[in-house]
Amino acid sequence: MFKLIILQLRYTWQAWIGALVVFIAAGIVLGVTMIGAISTISVHLGHGNYNPVAFFATPAIFGLITLMLILTGITRLLITKFKTDYNLWAILGANPNQLALLIGGQMSLSGMIGGFLGYFLALPIVRIYYAWVISTPGMREFPAIKMKLQLSSLTLTVLILGAFIGITGIINAKKVFSDGHKIHRLTKKRSCNLSILGWLWCVMVVGCLAYVYLLFFQGSTRLAALFGGHSLVETYSQALLALIFLMIMTINAAETVILPGLVKLLTLVFPTTLIKTFKTAYWNVLDKKDFLKTVAVPLVIFSLIASFFMYMIFDLANVASKRNLAEIVGTLSLFLGAPFLIILANTISLTIISSSERTTSIRQLQLIGFSLKDLMTEKRIEAEIYGLIVFIQATIGNALLFVPILKAADKTHTYMFDSWWSIFEWPAVTGTLVFLFILIVDDSYSYKIYSQNRFNVTQK
């Protein structure tokens, strides 16, 4: 099997370049953690209140959570891209476990390569960042440590990332290949594209979220009994942390149901009778569910996490009135830097992985008579749909989060700097970013392909 994985990877290596971008970004994040932690442990400074090991562990935790959410979509996109090869493997007698192992093995090897490259890119980053941290007021208690390359930290980065990506890839691929031995079973529709286990998982996660959410509307004694804490502030902080993780799990579990419904609801917003290209754009977005989920889920979750930490830092912790700007920036970059880097790499990967499908779609629209202006309008509407979906879903998530934040502030007698308008801030940023990204990429592809076709016609 290992030899088949190597041969298949060599045969399709160009298509894996797109996924490698995300893996290198993950390698940078994990490399920062490993270089910082191993360098600290090697000089016996991994203890005390200002422990750099715990400090460097934070990027890896949030980075790997983000990577796990992204890998589901990337795995499905890669399977779709290589569906001809996997059809052939199935005809030759490969079962779902073997197919899952085949793609998981390729992802693991690609992850190891990404971890190796990302590790060396992480060294200058961790040196510059940590030098800035220990020179920032409020963080000067951290010890001065020389960050250096070590074989142990390199080995751990490569092996951990390769194993994490490989295992996650096998699990996700097994879900795709789960319905029997024949590949045509992959397209078998279930209720709202969820299996029975998927529905049970959704119900369980939503039930846990509702239970914790309702606790904020009851007395603080029940929260204290469940989450403990030496003070009321600590109790609510732990409860809010549990709430945000349950919200992330709910979004990830229920997106298969939520996203198509949101796309259909947008028909009420757009003047469909006045824009002749809307229906084409609408069905293009609805048809590419895996691409939609891979784009929307990480950005919605990033918006939710960013809003959560902004509320915790500026409101509940009152850091804005106690710390300078440099310390606030350092804190935010510690928690949000890794997810943002991986999400940015994910957008680049999606552009590369889906380039052939994007080209095919544009050529088909040209064949049915779309002019360059029609193509640009259609792609603009697609970009607006993606942007609005991210904005609407992130705003709903922020609104649901803001209510417990207000309850916690009231119970702990904390003054809130942010108002209800704050729930629109990060959703507006992420929605605008995804709109601009898809618009620029699709318009550039449309212009390039249209120009090529015009040139070919002229030559004939």
Detailed description of the structure:
Helices cover 77% and strands 0% of the residues. It is an all-alpha fold. The chain folds into two domains: 1-188, no CATH class; 192-460, no CATH class. It starts with a helix and ends with a helix. Mean pLDDT is 79; it is low at 180-189.
From the structure above, extract its key features.
460 residues; mainly alpha; 2 domains; 77% helix; 0% strand; globular
Please state the average pLDDT score. 79
Give the DSSP E fraction (strand runs of 2 or more residues).
under 5%
Helix content: over 70%
**Total beta strand runs:** 0
Terminal Cα separation, in Å? 49 Å
How many domains, as an integer?
A: 2
The number of distinct helices, counting runs of at least 4 residues, comes to 15
* CA-based shape: globular
Reading the helices and strands in chain order gives HHHHHHHHHHHHHHH
- Helix-and-strand structural type: mainly alpha
- Radius of gyration equals 24 Å
Question: Runs with pLDDT <50, length 5+?
Answer: 180-189
The biggest beta sheet is recorded as: none
Summarize the structure.
With 460 residues, the protein is mostly helical. It is built from 15 helices and no strands.
Topology (elements, then pairings):
Layout: H1 2-11, H2 17-42, H3 52-81, H4 83-91, H5 96-133, H6 151-176, H7 196-215, H8 220-227, H9 232-265, H10 278-287, H11 289-316, H12 325-353, H13 355-367, H14 372-411, H15 425-459
Helix pairs in contact: 1-5, 2-3, 2-5, 2-6, 2-12, 3-6, 3-11, 3-12, 5-6, 7-9, 8-9, 9-11, 9-14, 10-14, 11-12, 11-14, 11-15, 13-15, 14-15
